[in-house]
Design goal:
By secondary structure, the protein is of the alpha/beta class. The protein folds into five domains: 103 residues, GIY-YIG endonuclease; 75 residues, no CATH class; 179 residues, P-loop containing nucleotide triphosphate hydrolases (Rossmann fold); 186 residues, Rossmann fold (3-Layer(aba) Sandwich); 92 residues, Alpha-Beta Plaits. Helix content is 33%, strand content 22%. The two termini are 47 Å apart. Pfam families: DEAD, Helicase_C, PriA_3primeBD, PriA_C, Zn_ribbon_PriA. It catalyses: Couples ATP hydrolysis with the unwinding of duplex DNA by translocating in the 3'-5' direction; ATP + H2O = ADP + phosphate + H(+). Component of the replication restart primosome.
């Protein structure tokens, strides 16, 4: 028997399988995904490798084929389905097979089990009483104390006995030698989720929720689950629908994975699931210890849990009978990996579901354009929730033109309207959230008099302001000198926006000295529990105003919040990124959705220097479909996803001259790949940050309607890079349909 093995070395030249003979003593003990030790190279250095296939015949001279040395110590096998998924990821996103295997490999090695020692009485109660009388006569107080405890309970925890009864190990040993008790060791799984005693209240579903559940259940029972987009306004009860779908999957003996965008959302989400599924739920996130991660994966593998909740990496939970993958807030950018392979959880989940015969549910109040376009093309099925569960009205939204505030002489970051509404809420003892949309902070130039923004004439993205008086496009490299008066209206009020959450907090404290204010941003949430602490004190109404960046507008439910103020709504509109309008729309809808979730009606105030922009107007009306129609016109015109596909090729090197030369030749080569296919090439240009940790950076963009044309281009570019020694000192990564600009 021969095994095809991928060697654990990340290098393009070794990105292929090597054949090894399986020794007789290991036959039958190895499987696809097993980690083994093999001799490699001229010096037969022992390396780790992964088996990705077997064959009975060798394609080389059997006498020259080396033999597997043995299993890798403490290794955990990768499930065969996950090996198939890794192969798809390598093909679909680039990188090497070993990088893909390590991505789908949830735990790298066995961890020491957590053990519990139990003391059990082995004598009858009658014999125990005789021994107790003997110990008391001999004044052996410690032995008597231990036996008294064991006469009350036949078995006790070893650690508890030593702590509570003040005993030493020698006392336990003495009674063990007398055969009065035994000490047994049991392995216990570390469980990061504490089961809740609280029971889930019976849910009354709305007509729309019932319909979404019915459609999914019918498809699942027919053995034909598909991919669904659960498009529901904020507060429409998407989580309850997920849980009902998961219930039906679990009752049929299968398991579910629930992906959520950020660790911060896990606590609230997990508790809702624990009330329904008890200790059959677990979580996976970066805050778990190696031992906890290992135990969760083993519990999943052994069928001891039914539901795994976590961010992107939870997608690779080794469930044997996976039935459903839910991706909550599917529009979030955190579902895209920043490491090679740069996979997207949405596409990867759909492929894993295809391999395992499972369903996928994507949920969002503001779906990504890709997901909504997928419904239009018939790839996904659309399930709508247009009403809030308790029939509360959506927040009333007003858009304030900050240019007019400037004309009135108000140079503050707060409009007169928002200031009055905050005063009113404070009098009524209701809570306020102020959201500072800081993405792209100080990155672009805008006119405060007329709202004009300086854009690239070639790419329809804003030019980024750089120190030294230059404005640069990070897509094509176009640049022009800094301007000091607005080309549209001649106003001198043109420049980069300068305000952070701290300045806003200082201003609010000054304007409303009687208000209790909390601030939530990267600086105030560095501690492990700080996130929970701030949110729970605001939920307990210990503060009147919560100021924060986008982390405060995601998924939180505060019934007493009746006013949300969005400061500088258009800041995220002009980051140098073709998805800027989509992100702005999603953030504004999420922000407005935080108001009026309880019994009191809600209001949102959106402040903008460009109030007529279609994304701000559509967000004020909470009209996703109007936004989608308008945005897709631009995407189609410019050939950006989802109208077409985009591949970014990021090149980095310590040697700037070499990098420029390499980027030039790679572009030349790319231009020769498919001249017939209409492959469009942009760049190479320097990204927003042209140098990181002494590494210079260049990026090349390739556009085409057909994804396969781009994967073919990627394969040919990889071959070209491999055979040209000049690229040895340049690191090159491929990113398909990137969600973050470089």
């Amino acid at each position: 028997m021969y095994a095809e093995i991928i060697i654990d070395i990340t290098h393009e030249k070794l990105d292929r399988t090597f054949e090894y003979k399986v020794p007789e003593e290991l036959e039958g003990t190895l499987a696809v995904g097993s980690s083994v030790l093999v001799p490699f190279g001229n010096g037969d250095k022992v390396r780790t490798g992964f088996i990705i296939g077997f064959s009975e015949k060798s394609s080389f001279d059997p006498a020259k084929i080396k033999e597997i040395r043995g299993k890798a110590p403490k290794s955990v096998r990768i499930e065969e389905n996950l090996v198939a998924l890794a192969a798809w990821m390598k093909e679909h996103y680039g990188g090497t097979m070993i990088q893909a295997l390590k991505t789908v490999w949830p735990v790298k090695k066995q961890e020491r089990p957590k053990e519990k020692r139990i003391i059990r009485r082995t004598v009858t109660e009658e014999e125990g009483r005789e021994w107790l009388a003997l110990f008391q006569r001999k004044n052996q107080k410690a032995r008597a104390r231990l036996l008294e405890a064991l006469l009350e309970n036949e078995e006790l925890d070893y650690g508890w006995i030593l702590r509570k009864l003040g005993l030493t190990a020698s006392v336990v040993r003495a009674l063990e030698e007398m055969q009065i008790l035994t000490v047994d060791t049991e392995t216990v799984w570390r469980n990061p989720v504490k089961a809740s005693e609280e029971q889930m209240k019976q849910i009354e579903y709305t007509t729309e929720q019932k319909e979404a559940i019915r459609i999914f259940k019918e498809d699942f029972q027919r053995g034909n689950p598909g991919t669904y987009l659960l498009y529901g306004v904020t507060g429409s009860g998407k989580t309850e629908v997920y849980m009902e779908m998961i219930q039906s999957v679990v009752q049929s003996g299968r398991q579910a994975i629930v992906l959520i965008p950020e660790i911060a959302l896990t606590y609230q989400t997990v508790m809702r699931f624990v009330r329904v599924f008890g200790n059959r739920v677990s979580i996976m996130n970066s805050r778990l210890s190696a031992g906890e991660r290992y135990d969760q994966m083993m519990r999943a593998k052994n069928g001891e849990i039914d539901v795994m909740i976590g961010p992107r990496s939870a997608l690779f939970t080794p469930f044997e009978h996976l039935g459903l993958i839910v991706i909550d807030e599917e529009h979030e950018t955190t579902y895209k990996s920043e490491q090679v392979p740069r996979y997207h959880a949405r596409e990867t989940a759909i492929e894993r579901a295809r391999i395992e015969g499972a369903g996928v549910v994507l949920g969002s109040a503001t779906p990504s354009l890709e997901a909504f376009e997928g419904c239009r093309r018939g790839q996904y099925r659309l399930l709508r929730l247009t009403q809030r569960v308790k029939k509360q009205k959506m927040a009333e939204v007003s858009v304030i033109d900050m240019r007019k505030e400037l004309q009135k002489g108000n140079r503050s970051i707060l409009s007169d309207c928002l200031r009055e509404k905050i005063e009113d809420r404070l009098k009524r003892r209701e809570q306020v959230m102020l959201f500072l949309n800081r993405r792209g902070f100080a990155g672009f130039l805008s006119c405060r008099s007329c709202g004009y923004v300086v854009k690239c004439p070639h790419c329809d993205v804003s030019l980024s302001w750089h120190r030294g008086g230059r404005m640069v496009c990070h897509y094509c490299g176009y640049e022009e000198p800094m301007i000091h008066t607005c080309p549209s209206c001649g106003s001198p009020h043109i420049g980069a926006f300068k305000a952070g959450t701290q300045q806003v907090e200082d201003l609010i404290r000054k304007e409303f000295p009687e208000a209790k204010v909390l601030r939530m941003d990267l600086d105030t949430t560095r501690g492990k529990e700080s996130y929970e602490t701030i949110l729970s004190s605001f939920a307990d109404q210990e503060a009147d105003i919560l100021i924060g960046t986008q982390m405060i507008v995601k998924g939180h439910d505060f019934p007493n919040v009746t006013l949300v103020g969005v400061l500088a709504a258009d800041l995220s509109l002009y980051i140098s990124d073709y998805r800027a309008a989509e992100r702005t729309f999603a953030l504004l809808c999420q922000a407005a959705g935080r108001a009026g979730r309880g019994d009191l009606p809600g209001e949102a105030v959106i402040q903008s220097y460009n109030p007529e922009h279609y994304s701000i107007q559509a967000a004020a009306r909470q009209d996703y479909e109007a936004f989608f129609a308008e945005e897709m016109k631009f995407r189609t015109l410019m050939g950006y996803p989802p109208a077409a596909h985009l591949m970014a090729v990021l090149m980095t090197s310590e040697d700037e001259a070499l990098l420029n030369k390499g980027a030039y030749y790679l572009k030349l080569f790319a231009g020769r790949i498919r001249t017939d296919a209409g492959l469009e090439i942009i760049g190479p240009a320097s990204p927003a940050i042209g140098k990181v940790k002494d590494q210079y950076r260049k990026v090349l963009y390739l556009k085409h309607e057909d994804y396969r044309v781009l994967t073919e281009a990627k394969d040919k570019m990889e071959q070209y890079i491999e055979i040209n020694e000049g690229f040895q000192n340049i690191r090159i990564q491929f990113d398909f349909d990137p969600v973050q600009t470089f």
